[in-house]
Write a structure and sequence with these properties.
homodimer; mainly alpha; DNA-binding
Chain lengths: ~190, ~190
Amino acid sequence: MTQSAPRAMRCDAQLNRTRIIEFARETFAATPGATLKAIARGAGVGQGTMYRHFPTSDHLLLAVYWAEIDELVDAAPRLLERHEPVLALRLWLQRLAGYGGLGTAVSRAMAAATRADPDGPAYQQISAVLDELLTACRRAHRLRDGVTAHEVLLLMSYVWAAEGGADRPGGPGAGLLDVVMDGLCGRTSH
Amino acid sequence: MTQSAPRAMRCDAQLNRTRIIEFARETFAATPGATLKAIARGAGVGQGTMYRHFPTSDHLLLAVYWAEIDELVDAAPRLLERHEPVLALRLWLQRLAGYGGLGTAVSRAMAAATRADPDGPAYQQISAVLDELLTACRRAHRLRDGVTAHEVLLLMSYVWAAEGGADRPGGPGAGLLDVVMDGLCGRTSH
DNA sequence: ACCTGAACACCGTTCAAGT
DNA sequence: ACCTGAACACCGTTCAAGT
């Protein structure tokens, strides 16, 4: 513990924080575009408190969906153990896309992370994990050269671009993952 | 003229309209996130007038960048005449991406069109023209099956996803068009 | 038919006052 | 150290009143 452990919050602050997050989760599920003020009111805290804990709505979004992001991150090594690299990559991206569509957890947090805090922990973790998948593919000479994790995430932004969600089973964009995979695996150095 | 020709506007209305558009063009160039109220004030019209002509900021955006969209649309047939289909498609997408980056004309209008008015004339024209390019490629058996123009535009949304613009020459996303092209042309039915 | 501008209901943000 | 809630500067939207 040579470094500053984040200085435990006072217990009322901690309580308020969890209260906000919990109420925000329910609220976002019902009303995706809910306002910070409304959430503060509903959670029974002052607006100043809200603002202290979550300076912007993206911060709140990340806090609410943190668990889902963790799941996504944890899934990667498991996939790499059980499948060959390219399939693992495909399944992971599929899962990423599966979270997509506005209103579902990870896509909103991803959008928030890429938008507001590209250097924040959420984006860092996700791109680090994706980088492992890409490296595995590269080692197997199954990936084209010079593609970064950030670029792949950029390419996947079609998932959370459309309001309606581009990932619905039948909808437009359902087949786009095939296109992306072929693009990523074409022209290998093999 | 069996149909309702859009009923010529009164001359003061027409004047106000062009005044708004002109001032908005300058303003957007300087301050991308400019507000409708500020533009109304700067253009010397009442807020009600602003609202009558452009119910939402996306409508204004489309009006401002209409000329650029026309250029893009007109470029397609020329490209098809002078190059083979796949190269034509590539050059057109390159041009589309070249408009990219927030703050440049077409990308903002495209984002506006896909977001607010997916059935509006701008998006219709662009996707129709892209469909011609795709059809030409398909006829030459150089395009994978079952890809629609809408999907390709969805895939290109990486261009206007990032705030900084993903299309800068050296920046991330510069090589993504290659990935997209390989993805689109892989697995042909040829 | 069109324009004006005050008015309304909202938003995020701040900050003095409390505990 | 943290919370509260009034206050501030803004936004889009509406609408009675004018021409």
